[in-house]
Amino acid sequence: MTEILRRCSRSSAQKNLPRTYPVAGIRKETTHVHTFTFNVSLGAKPGQFVMVWLPGVDEVPMSVANDDGKKLQITFFAVGDTTKKLATLKKGDLVGLRGPFGTHYEWKPKQHLALVAGGYGAAPMFFAASEAAKDGCTLTAIVGARAKEHLLYLDAFKRLPRTTLSVATDDGSQGHKGYNVELLAELLKSKKKPDQVFACGPERMLVKVSDLCFQHAVPCQLSLERYMKCGYGLCGNCVVDPLGIRLCTDGPVVKNDLARSITEFGKYHRDHLGKKHSL
Ligand SMILES: Cc1cc2nc3c(=O)[nH]c(=O)nc-3n(C[C@H](O)[C@H](O)[C@H](O)COP(=O)(O)OP(=O)(O)OC[C@H]3O[C@@H](n4cnc5c(N)ncnc54)[C@H](O)[C@@H]3O)c2cc1C
Ligand code: FES
C-alpha cells in the first residue's frame, strides 16, 4: 500500500514538472502552423493539453494533437514570442513537456459525433475523431478556416473510417463559403442529427456551437481556453466568472450546460495579470 502511494505521488509530481524531449519529427502544415512529434507517450486523452516549455523563453499550453501510446504530437500556430521561437527549432532540439492536464472529450461506442474545428482546433478534433473511430463511432467532421491555405488536417480526416468531411472557408476558396457553424446548423436540422457535438476553435465559434446545440437539444462538449500558468489548479490564473472554477482542471473541455453558466464565455478573458480583455 505504501509503495502504491509512493508511486502515485511520484507520478503526479513528474506530471507537474517539465521533462525535456528531443523533437523527433517536424511537419509544416501551413505557412505558420507546424506539427512536432516527440517519441514519448504521456497517456493523453483527446482534449487534454500539455505545457510546452522553451528554456529561456516561456512555457505555453498546447492541446495534444495525438498520443498513440508511443508518440505525442502538438500542432501550433506561430503567433508570438514562444510559438515563433518554437517554429525555428530543428529535429533533435529539446523541448520541455509536462502534463497531460485537464478534462477530455467523452463519447459512447457507436455514437454519431459531429466535430466542429476552427484554426488549430482541427488537431485536437482529429485526435478525438481517430480515437472515437476505434470505438465504432460515425463521424461528421466540419473544418473551417479563413481560406483554403489555412485548412488543417483534411487528409487525416479523410483517412478515418465512417467519416464525412465538410469544409467551410470565409472566402469560399474551398467548400462552403461562410462559417463552419452554418454547416453545423444544417446538420442539426437534418435527419442525420448527431448524438453529440464536439468543438474546438475560436471562442466566437464556440458560442455559436453552444447556442445551436442548446436550440436543438443536442449535447455538446467545448474546449475553452484561458491564460494558463501552472496547468494543474495551483495559481488560479484560469478561473472564470462567476463560478470561480479553474479551466485547467475543470476544463478545458466542458459540457454545454457548464459553458453556458460561465458569464464571461464569449464576452471577455483575462491576461497573465488578471486584466479583462473583450473578445
Ligand atoms: C488549453 C489550451 C490549449 C491550447 N492549444 C493550442 C494548440 O494546440 N495550438 C496552438 O497554436 N495554440 C494553442 N493554445 C494557445 C497557445 O497557448 C498560445 O497561442 C500561446 O501561448 C502563444 O504564446 P506566444 O508566446 O507565442 O504568443 P503571445 O504573443 O505571448 O500570445 C499570443 C496569444 O496567445 C495567448 N497566450 C499567451 N500565453 C498564453 C498562456 N500561457 N495561456 C493561454 N493563452 C496564452 C495570449 O493571450 C495571446 O492572445 C492553447 C491554449 C490553451 C489555453
Ligand atoms: S493555470 Fe494555474 S490554476 Fe489553472
Give structural notes.
The chain has 7 helices and 19 strands. It is an alpha/beta fold and 279 residues long. It has 2 domains: 2-101, Elongation Factor Tu (Ef-tu), domain 3, CATH 2.40.30.10; 112-278, Nucleotide-binding domain of ferredoxin-NADP reductase (FNR) module (Rossmann fold). Strands 12-11-10-9-13-14-17 form a 7-stranded mixed β-sheet, sandwiched between helices. Strands 1-8-4-5 form a 4-stranded antiparallel β-sheet. α6 (203-215) links the parallel β13 (196-200) and β14. Residues 1-10 have low confidence and may be disordered. The structure holds flavin-adenine dinucleotide (FAD) and FE2/S2 (inorganic) cluster (FES). The site of flavin-adenine dinucleotide has 22 residues, from β5, β7 and α2.
Q: What number is the mean pLDDT?
A: 94
Alpha carbon gap, first and last residue: 49 Å
CATH homologous superfamily classification of the largest domain: Nucleotide-binding domain of ferredoxin-NADP reductase (FNR) module
Instruction: Quickly give the structural class.
Output: alpha/beta
CATH first level of the largest domain: Alpha Beta
Strand content: 25-35%
Q: Enumerate the spans where pLDDT stays under 50 for 5 or more consecutive residues.
A: 1-10
Radius of gyration: 18 Å
Name the ligand types: flavin-adenine dinucleotide, FE2/S2 (inorganic) cluster
Query: What count of helical segments does DSSP give?
Result: 7
The helix content, as a percent range, equals 10-25%
What's this model, at a glance?
24% of the residues lie in helices and 32% in strands. It is α/β, with parallel strands linked by helices. The protein folds into 2 domains: 100 residues, Translation factors (Elongation Factor Tu (Ef-tu), domain 3, Beta Barrel), CATH 2.40.30.10; 167 residues, Nucleotide-binding domain of ferredoxin-NADP reductase (FNR) module (Rossmann fold), CATH 3.40.50.80.
